[in-house]
């Protein structure tokens, strides 16, 4: 069967850049464009040349994309001057891209309120702008702003805006749900009408997520005949974001109703790069990735409930709609007080402990986890603390450094000077070692007292030299005076694999201390340090 | 026209609790349930009694909901024992809720792989479990796990599972897209078939977001005739989450195609509480709210681009699909420090300070706020600290208690005993006062040293007697060793109006101290205490 072609248009660098808090550098844009070209999207909208220095500079770079057409964005020419004399259009011509996309009005209310011109004048601006770029041999896209709202208000006028561009040779007419308020059933209904006038092979959809339906609206448009889909990596975009291409692309490839009818320029083997592509954007934005993103989120294939876990182990299809590896993601079994035995067993397996389900130690470990979670522990983000707990119950962990006592103090004197200091008394092989340190705060002082004095720790010195804390988090669990503090610490070393530990106590110092000691113990255990005599 | 009723079922406390990283305390659950009851959802699924200590304890509490039916969750009875002798069902009977929801298999593949029983036995387990609770006069809901996958594999069997529950008196048959892989067009097609056998007035939908379509799938089901919709606050849930009720509820109320056909138990005036409800959950989870959530996100009505901003100022309808105030959200124009000024002025007005925009003190206050927010302060949620700062710059705040120095220490001895103690030297009217105290942790000790000794504070004693701290929160802002700690304190007194203060420092003790001193100062200021001589 001949499949129909779908075209993917990425606007991360243009519409995505309009997001509050997003401020790409030229370098950022180059990195993202390269990732998109490698992925194989059809169009990369690079920005609006002339609108800001970053975009202008980006288009001045030499771009050599293998798969994607670089597209510059602008708006239809102003009233009262010819297309040839419009500085906005000139900036786009100078950007020298194979494709040009112009936004123009298709809602009469906007023509009146925002532009303050007549409906006829707007049509003329659309057709002359189109003619201008078609003459320049650009692949021309007309982005019909507010098309769906415009259609609801004045369908005849909205359609005539599309026709003005199509009749002058526009390759694509993009139906834009600018305010994002259109629902899927309306998309279906309206596209079914539009397609009577504009062929589906020339129609595109640009959806926003203001009702949580950007992905569904894009799919509805495709079912109704649209063949060009605009969106961004991770759904980045103003307000509630654009349609998320990281959700749409895998759906087109992995869901049979789509894959049996449609084909894309993106190679099937490239969709395993989607997770990496999603994370790249967060890295550039210095954001914590959203773990719950469809297909590519870190938790998208996490299983926590006990019943789910035992079934997934028998056959992953039981609780997974696709195989996570197809999109470059992975399965993740979580341990918590929701867990049953099977979570524990499968998690033990991943750390190399093979144990029978009937072994009474499993029940003991599960009870211990549940009891601890009840008082505030949470093992689903604390792999190292879980491993230590499990090994202490099931097999054994040597005793390493014994911390006999500590004393932490924070003093503020009458000049306002604050000194945080700590003293800890440790024992290694029967020898008492006193360590002292200062820090920014009490926890930092205690950490410094121990870790800045690793030279004193005799046989453990070499194991702890490269230990580094990379993150420290505090959460107060209850409210009022009976508050419980949970501290999570993320640690790393020169081998580069991070581990996570946890401590819980009514006392923040004690909670931090517990998490810190777990981190030291885990480091000594994984590096096979000898026990303390 | 007679409108049809839609029923909203919230499963934040059950399915939402299965999310990686989420572990509600009993108190958390009570707070969320109260918010849901106030909102007016039809059903609150509280958890799985017997599955973990938190859920068991939650159901033991006395619940008196005004609008919502508390629902307990479990699974259909096991094979090989009667419903009366099934400990799982007994735990649900003992939970004593007006409604009971049981999950059961409807995909033959699962009956075989996960349960390892015959298809007939599964049907029997469904019908007998239903019968059991109907006899107990519970409102019974059957949650047909994996219904859509089951229907695709063996439609006849999947339907017979539903019939087994309906025929024994189930009120609702909930079609669950457990793995979340079903697409909207499939929901439409399959529900259109199901409804030939099971009336729409008995049908529910439970959608997951694994393809980014949970909201759209719920809407598609409603269009196809389903009248009961399950979801969670903010779409909280395992993997990619559940259908987000904070998106669905406003769509039902604010989009005419829905509001003209359907009505809900939720009162129209209550949807302005949705933003608050969404933020409450993040607050309990100690998470940064997702700014881009449809309707309720802080950026859902943010306008950045210059063109958009100028049009929105002419008429907000130009770039907003609804009026943000309808859901308790607000418009946010991201522009110059000019808009900052008008924010500050309007905020000063609410605390009773009238000041002209041209007054140079406005600029000074704005700069101070910006500098402080840059280092980690956040005055959004710290009304009392903002008022103190503003009054100190614009008018004046008397000097009350001077805290000259303090000394806080935490000691752990070799028996594991931890003692937290604090000593503070205060000055009132030139007289030095030394206060000492102990506590659960260093902050609590410092707080006790000051507030448990208010008797010593001479003329301030009577003002501070009824001061109480009701909440204490800590957030670590940066990562690594350069971490900054932000402490927020919520305080109250016998007049019952709470106030919020904030302290930021590299040192958690100092940050807590600052927030505490602001709380004392604010209390003395608002109660018109005299200045210290």
UniProtKB/TrEMBL annotation, chains A, B:
Annotated PROSITE patterns: AIPM_HOMOCIT_SYNTH_1, AIPM_HOMOCIT_SYNTH_2, PYR_CT
Keyword vocabulary terms for this entry: Amino-acid biosynthesis, Branched-chain amino acid biosynthesis, Isoleucine biosynthesis, Transferase
EC number assigned by the record: 2.3.3.21
SMART domains recorded: LeuA_dimer
Domain of life: Bacteria
Pathway assigned to this chain's UniProt record: Amino-acid biosynthesis; L-isoleucine biosynthesis; 2-oxobutanoate from pyruvate: step 1/3
Catalytic reaction(s) noted: pyruvate + acetyl-CoA + H2O = (3R)-citramalate + CoA + H(+)
Domain (Pyruvate carboxyltransferase) ranges: 6-272
Pfam family, one: HMGL-like
Entry's family note: Belongs to the alpha-IPM synthase/homocitrate synthase family.
PANTHER family linked to this entry: (R)-CITRAMALATE SYNTHASE, ALPHA-IPM SYNTHASE/HOMOCITRATE SYNTHASE
Protein name as catalogued: Citramalate synthase
Originating species: Pelagibacter ubique
């Amino acid at each position: 069967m001949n499949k129909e072609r779908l075209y993917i248009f990425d606007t991360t660098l243009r519409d995505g850049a309009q997001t509050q808090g997003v401020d790409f550098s030229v370098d950022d844009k180059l990195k993202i464009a390269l990732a998109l070209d490698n992925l194989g999207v059809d169009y990369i909208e690079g920005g609006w040349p002339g609108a800001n220095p970053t975009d202008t500079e980006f288009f001045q770079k030499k771009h050599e994309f293998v798969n994607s057409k670089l597209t510059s964005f602008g708006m239809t020419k102003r009233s009262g001057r010819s297309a040839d004399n419009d500085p906005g259009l000139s900036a786009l011509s100078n950007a020298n891209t194979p494709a040009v996309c112009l936004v123009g009005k298709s809602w009469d209310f906007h023509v009146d309120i925002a532009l303050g011109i007549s409906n006829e004048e707007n049509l003329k601006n659309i057709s002359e702008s189109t003619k201008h770029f078609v003459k320049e041999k650009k692949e021309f896209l007309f982005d019909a702003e507010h098309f769906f709202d415009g259609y609801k208000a004045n369908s005849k006028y909205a359609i005539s805006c599309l026709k003005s561009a199509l009749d002058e040779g526009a390759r694509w007419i993009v139906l834009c749900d600018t305010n994002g308020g259109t629902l899927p059933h309306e998309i279906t209904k309206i596209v079914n009408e539009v397609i009577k006038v504009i062929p589906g092979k020339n129609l595109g959809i640009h959806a926003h997520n203001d009702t949580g339906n950007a992905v569904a609206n894009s799919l509805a448009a495709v079912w109704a005949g649209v063949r060009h889909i605009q969106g961004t990596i991770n759904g980045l975009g103003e307000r509630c974001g654009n349609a998320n291409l990281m959700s749409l692309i895998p759906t087109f490839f992995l869901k049979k109703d789509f894959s049996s009818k449609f084909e894309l320029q993106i190679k099937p083997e490239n969709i395993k790069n989607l997770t990496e592509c999603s994370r790249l954007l967060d890295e550039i934005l210095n954001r914590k990735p959203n773990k719950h993103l469809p297909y590519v989120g870190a938790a998208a294939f996490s299983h926590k409930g006990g019943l789910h876990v035992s079934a997934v182990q028998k056959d992953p299809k039981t609780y997974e709609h696709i195989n996570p590896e197809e999109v470059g993601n992975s399965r993740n079994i979580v341990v918590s007080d929701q867990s049953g035995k099977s979570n524990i067993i499968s998690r033990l397996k991943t750390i190399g402990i093979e144990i029978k389900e009937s072994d009474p130690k499993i029940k003991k470990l599960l009870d211990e986890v549940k009891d601890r979670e009840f008082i505030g522990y949470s093992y689903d983000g604390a792999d190292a603390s879980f491993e230590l707990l499990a090994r202490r119950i099931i097999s054994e962990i040597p005793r390493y450094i014994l911390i006999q006592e500590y004393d932490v103090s924070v003093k503020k004197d009458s000049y306002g000077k604050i000194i945080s200091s700590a003293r800890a008394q440790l024992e290694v092989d029967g020898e008492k070692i006193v360590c002292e340190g200062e820090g920014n705060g009490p926890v930092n002082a205690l950490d410094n007292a121990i870790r800045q004095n690793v030279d004193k720790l005799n046989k453990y010195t070499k194991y702890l030299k490269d230990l580094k804390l990379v993150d420290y988090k505090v959460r107060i669990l209850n409210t009022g005076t009976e508050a419980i503090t949970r501290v999570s610490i993320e640690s790393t070393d020169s081998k580069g694999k991070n581990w996570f530990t946890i401590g819980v106590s009514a006392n923040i110092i004690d909670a931090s201390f517990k998490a810190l000691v777990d981190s030291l113990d885990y480091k000594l255990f994984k590096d096979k340090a000898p026990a303390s005599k």
